[in-house]
Every structure is written in C-alpha cells, then in structure tokens.
Amino acid sequence: MTKRELIIISVERDLEFSLEELCQLCEITPDFIQELIDYGTIEANQYPLAALRFNSEHVRLIRRILHLEQDLQVNLPGALLAIDLKNEIERMQMEIDILKKYWASAQHYSRS
Amino acid sequence: MEYKDYYSVLGVNRKASADDIKRAYRKLARKYHPDVSTEKNAEDKFKALQEAYEVLKDTTKREAYDQLGSQWKSGQDFRPPPNWQGFDFDGRQQGFTGESGGGFSDFFESIFGSQHGARVKQSRTSRQRGQDEHAKITISLEDAFHGGNKTIHIQMPEMDADGHMHNQTRALKINIPAGITSGHQLRLTKQGGQSLYGGEPGDLYLEINVASHSSFSLQDRDIYLTLPITPWEAALGGKVTVPTLGGAVDVKITAGAQTGDKLRLKGRGLPHKQTPGDQYVLLQVWTPPAKTETDRHLYEKMAEQMPFNPRKNLVKE
C-alpha cells in the first residue's frame, strides 16, 4: 500500500442535489424517489419531482436503504422500518449517554 | 500480512456445511450491518464477515483457502506458499457494499489475486467520469465544534499500472466546517475513482461520524454537561466556572438551585448559521462528608434549624 499526500482545496458542505444529480450519485431512478415519497419517507412539496432539491441527508438515507436491500435482502418497507428503528435507537442512546454521564459523575464523587 | 481465520470470523468449525456457513453469515450480517447495528465497530466486523463469507460460500475458493492448512492462527504473520498460483477471480461480487473505501484485505488479495473492483456496479449509463466513492470518517467532538484543517487516512480501491485494483491508503488534508454533525456528507470534487475512459475522476463523499466524548454529551446540536456544585452554591447561589467546547464561561447559579436543575447556556452548543445549539448544564449537588466533630456539629445544627423532609411525597397514591 502506498501513500499519497494531497492538499484538498474544495470541500463542499451544504450540498444540494437536483433529482438528476441525486439519481446519478446514488445510481437509482426517479421511480425509486417516487416510491420513497409514496412511503412518506421523503417530503415532497407541491413541486413537480424534477424541481425538488435534495441534500446530504437524502444521500445518506438512500445509501442506507440500498445497503440493506443488497446486503440483507430486505425489501423497501422493511428497510425503511429498520432505518426508522435505528434512528429511534440512536436518539435514545443520546439520552442514555446524558443520563449515564450524570450518574457516573455522582458515583465518582461517592468513591473519591 | 496477517492470516485471517475465516471460520472463526463466522463462528463455525472447519467441517461446517454450506448451510451452516450460510446460516452463520446471515445471522451475523443482521447483527453487524453498519446501517442498523448498535454494536461497536460494526463496520469493521461486517467487512470481515463479508470477506469470510465470500471465501467460504464458494467451493473453489473455500478449497483453495483450506489448502493453506489449518495450523495458522488469526493475526499470525503470513506469506503465501511458494509457487502459489494467484487465482484470478473475476471480481463480480453480489453487493459488497463495504464503506470506508477499500475492497478486501491484503490477505485475501494475496490468495485470490486482485479483484477487478471489489464493488462492481452495474452502470446504467456509460460514464466518462470515474466512479463516485464514499467513505466514512470519525472526528472528535472538539473537531466537530471548531472545524478546521485535518489530515485523514482512508483506504480506497485504486487501479495500478497492470489494471489491477489494490487497496491504497490515501492521506487527505480536508477542511472540516465548524458545527458539522454525524451523517453529514462532505464532497471532495474529483477525489473519487479514476476514469477508465480518460475522463475526469469522480467525486469522493465523506460521511462524518462524531465520536462520543468523555465529559460532554451531544444531542442534535445541543451539548450537555453534568456540573457538581456545593450545597451553599445551590442554596445561596453563586458564580461558577463552567467548561464549554468554546472555552470556560462564568455562570450564575440562582439561589435555591437543586440537583437536577438544567441551566441553559444559549448558543454554546455546536455552531450553525441560523441557529447554533445550546449547552445545557445539569446541576448535581455534592454534600461534603462530615470528617471532624465541628463538621458533625454543623450538620446537626442544620438538621435542627432547617426541618426538611425530602421524602414527604415519595410514593404518590
């Protein structure tokens, strides 16, 4: 394995994608996006599909769905359910982290 | 390079049947799939699982692997036997969607020859541009807060002069925007896969993961910190110094504060254009031990002069 040092100038942060760009990046079709809208996973305002704008979160969501479908043979509603549950778990884990640190602080005192 | 014991990765013995192997893989894949797993190091474990399954599910590959002998241990220094004919497998896998770039391990490649792309995508269009690549990096909470330049190392599959795909470690210096949160994608234009048709390289997308911190907790853009205070600071109020990611701040505690009170330090959470997060300080009163006679007298006097029953409403009907 060789190493190569590179200086990166451009790091784009607040990424915004058109429908076409999103489809090309994630290698999906607009039909797939329509399905996600139909499942209520992606909010579509009144605009036609082609006028929608997508961001980092959409890229991440789509990649997660595709991974689950490919790696675990889950179908689309199954993948969406799994992702919803995982998100809920992560939210709960953040709360637990706060409580754990609170408790650890109290215990630290009682032991010192 | 290190020997990899694929049987132990899947938790099966060397005589396991194809069904045993499939069952073991499916069970573990469900548990460690990085997009839904709650296990630590799920990604690394999942990658190892995929590689082990790739070998053991295929009779030819499994035979070749078994030929290396069963005396090796995982992690042991390994070299392919002399006259080993690298099996040149055509690199079409079913959905190896490994993240953090890279294909299979050096060990795998030394046994089975280089793969023509660990992840072969069926392109619907004939792209002139190289593939867009995705990788995941973990940064500290401090880095997420301050942003700034950072050098990261990621493994990417790259084509060498012979047209073989190899894992290469790339060192990239990137600028992390202040206030970035987990899940966000950074795009590094033209840093992705090389074009096979002389076109431009694809882009590299980095997914950010913010590591947990020893003292601070993070929830969305808000920071949480438990703050121990004395009984007199709580009862009488006072000024205390509170650490934040942006430096220590003085905070006024109002008289009558109690354990569990939540103080809001506006704007002291993760920065953001429109609405920066806040820092919440959770008060925790620590009572000093009564070490001497004087201490004991003080406490006894308090008990005498300040009748107080904290358990009055303990169990509500």
Biggest sheet of chain B: strands side by side, in what order? 6-7-11-10
Largest sheet of chain B: 4 strands, mixed
Euclidean distance between termini CA atoms of chain B: 67 Å
Q: What fraction of the residues of chain A are assigned to beta strands by DSSP?
A: under 5%
How many DSSP E strands of chain B?
Answer: 11
Largest interface: A-B, 43 and 53 residues
Question: What Rg of chain B do the Cα atoms give?
Answer: 29 Å
Low-pLDDT stretches of chain B? 89-101, 115-125
Largest sheet of chain A: none
Q: What are the secondary-structure elements of chain B, in order, as H or E? A: HHHHHEHEEEEEEHEEEEH
Helix content of chain B: 10-25%
- The separation of the N and C termini of chain A measures 49 Å
- Work out the radius of gyration of chain A: 20 Å
* Low confidence ranges of chain A: none
Task: Briefly say what this structure is.
Chain A is mostly helical and 112 residues long.
Description of the molecule:
The complex is a heterodimer of chains A (112) and B (317). Chain A has 112 residues and is mainly α. Helices cover 62% and strands 4% of the residues of chain A. Chain A has four helices and one strand. Chain A has helices spanning 19-26, 30-38, 56-72, 76-111, and one strand spanning 3-7. In chain A, helix 3 crosses helix 4. Chain A is elongated. Chain A starts with a strand and ends with a helix. The model of chain A has no long low-confidence stretch (mean pLDDT 86). Chain B contains eight helices and eleven strands. Chain B has helices at residues 6-10, 18-32, 42-56, 59-67, 106-112, 141-146, 231-236, 293-305; strands at residues 133-139, 148-159, 165-176, 185-188, 204-210, 217-219, 222-229, 238-242, 249-253, 262-265, 279-285. Helices cover 24% and strands 23% of the residues of chain B. In chain B, strands 6-7-11-10 form a four-stranded mixed beta sheet. A three-stranded mixed beta sheet of chain B has the order 1-5-4. The relative contact order of chain B is 0.09. In chain B, a hairpin with a 5-residue loop joins strand 2 (148-159) and strand 3 (165-176). Residues 89-101 and 115-125 of chain B have low confidence and may be disordered. With 317 residues, chain B is of the alpha+beta class. The chains are: A mainly alpha (112), B alpha+beta (317). Strand 1 (3-7) of chain A pairs parallel with strand 3 (165-176) of chain B.
